[in-house]
Design goal:
single chain; Tetrahydropterin Synthase, Chain A; 4-stranded antiparallel sheet; 3-stranded antiparallel sheet; 10 helices; protease
């Protein structure tokens, strides 16, 4: 072997020129670096022991390959190829999606578990995190401990529809869409910057269509929802593979220079709302009562109308009956009508009966005059006296 370590075969891979020891630097044995020579010899011996036919201490010392010929080279090459192919195994975590490429071209997506693809430089794998919720801050920045430490006026100051300025900070939370992870990998280069630019543009458009009073009071939820829909639509058109989870308004205030005036306006608006609510409460209590009373009066009038109509109808029917009887027997009818009338008239007055046939000269107080004892009044007076005595 050319690198043989036998005593008569030379002193190393460079041989022993002129029969003297030495190395590639020439000269005597004292100038040869012993550490390098020992390292090469040890590597040579290991290769001989590992490769079949590679020779040993009693093997051939001719001019053949140290690897035992062409077969050893093939084995080395096969091992190298096997190791290279083994590097194609990869693991996908539950919160990841595997994006496989061959020569840079997308060939498919894989789920969690142990997977395989051709190793570099033929194949490649990108594993975006689809479980992590990312946050983008617009108008402000937070420091350690989630405390706001810096405002960004260039992002937060926006013009409203009534030509006022509002200082608005908001946050966009997003994540990679698991169903469109390949779009996220190949179609968008700077996700954070793209989403932030789209969100800020959408917020300015939405704020520009509303008055500042509505923005500061009761339309913040609708603003956040509208901005979320606009950002999601724009990202879908770009094929970004991003899903917007929520758009949250962190703070909505007028500029610091005019903030006290807006505070006074808001206080006045709240007082007006309070007065309106109290008026509505009073109206909701009084109006039903008034309607109840009006309905009661109407029903009473309807009842009186029905009663009066029924009485008039009855009297008319009775008169018709009396008239029919009168036509049959006029004298008897007149007598009956006279008696009924006198009964009604004399029934409620004090009466004195005069007997025109009384005997003259009798001892009566007045001839022919007969006093009538009012039994009803007598009974009423007796009851009153009894009650007073008690």
């Amino acid at each position: 072997m050319p690198w043989s370590n036998q005593n008569g075969g030379g002193g190393g891979p460079w041989g022993r020129p002129n029969g003297n020891g030495g190395g590639p630097w020439g000269g005597g044995g004292g100038n040869t670096p012993p550490n390098l020579e020992d390292l090469l010899r040890r590597g040579q011996d290991r290769l001989r022991r590992m490769i079949p036919g590679g020779g040993g201490p009693g093997g051939s010392s001719g001019t053949g390959s140290p690897f035992g010929g062409g077969r050893g080279a093939l084995i080395i090459g096969a091992l190298a190829v096997a190791v290279w192919l083994a590097t194609g195994f990869y693991k996908v975590e539950p919160y990841q999606v595997g994006i496989e490429t061959i020569f840079g071209r997308y060939v498919g997506s894989t789920g969690e578990g142990l997977r395989y693809n051709f190793p570099y430089p033929i194949g490649g794998v990108v594993k975006p995190n689809v479980g992590q919720v990312n946050s983008i801050q617009v108008g402000y920045r937070t420091g350690p401990g989630q405390t706001r430490n810096r405002d960004v006026p260039d992002e937060s100051l926006m013009l409203t529809g009534d030509e006022n300025i509002v200082d608005l900070d908001f946050e966009v939370q997003w994540r990679v869409n698991p169903l469109k992870a390949s779009d996220f990998v190949f179609n968008i280069q700077n996700p954070e910057g793209t989403i932030k630019a789209i969100a800020e543009s959408a917020m300015r458009e939405v704020i520009g269509r509303r008055n500042i009073q509505a923005i500061l009071t009761n339309e913040q939820a609708s603003i956040a929802q509208e901005v979320k829909e606009m950002v999601q639509k724009a990202l879908d058109e770009y094929g970004a593979g991003v899903r917007i989870e929520v758009v949250q308004l962190v703070s909505v205030n007028p500029p610091p220079e005019v903030r006290p005036a807006f505070v006074d306006v808001n206080a006045a608006q709240q007082d007006a709302d309070t007065a309106q609510n109290e008026a509505k409460t009073y109206a909701s209590r009084e109006v039903p009562q008034a309607r109840g009373k009006a309905s009661q009066i109407v029903q009473a009038a309807e009842a009186y109308k029905t009663k009066a109509t029924a009485d008039a109808t009855g009297q008319a029917a009775r008169f018709n009956e009396v008239y029919a009887s009168y036509k049959v027997a006029p004298a008897i009818s007149r007598e009956r009508i006279f008696l009924e009338t006198m009964e009604k008239v004399l029934g409620s007055v004090n009466k004195v009966i005069i007997d025109q046939n009384g005997a003259p000269g009798s001892s009566a107080p007045a001839a022919g005059v007969l006093p009538v004892l009012p039994l009803s009044e007598f009974g009423a007076r007796g009851q009153a006296q009894t009650g007073a005595a008690r």
